[in-house]
Specification:
Layout lengths: L2 H9 L2 E8 L2 E6 L3 E6 L13 E7 L2 E7 H4 L12 E9 L2 E9 L1 E8 L4 E2 L11 E7 L2 E6 L1 H13 L2
Parallel strand pairs: 2-11, 5-7
Antiparallel strand pairs: 1-2, 1-8, 3-6, 4-5, 6-7, 9-10, 10-11
Amino acid sequence: MNGSAMDLQAADAAQFLTFLLDGEEYGVDILRVQELKAWDSVTPLPNTPAWVLGVINLRGLIVPIVDLRKRFGLREVAYGATTVVVVLKLEAGGRTRIVGVVVDAVSDVYNVGAADRKAPPDVGGTNAFVRELATVGDKMVILLDIDALLGEAADAATTH
């Protein structure tokens, strides 16, 4: 490959932080990741969806915490040594909001070119949370649209 072709490929690549949930690998745009935190207790909020565990105080900022297993309807498991909270920045309606998601474990950071990212197939329903499917080596990573996935959690936490 000549230098200009490599530059073009690098220009269309994006980095994704990946994590595991029930054996599947999911990814989010690394530019939306604020930080990673070890699991800790939360303060529950009344009258929120079951998948909103509650809130934490992160250096003076009240951050809603979502259990992605519950959000996706997966079986619940006890949190363990690899359980992590990925703190993400949502962009919606011209404002930035912060939400944490509880995942089984953080996996990797991948540089994925546009040619290796495809729209999800239409399987008779819409999954507004899946942005794209990425091929990384011999595996597929589900890239999430965090604004669609977590906007409701941010709204639930701010209305209380």
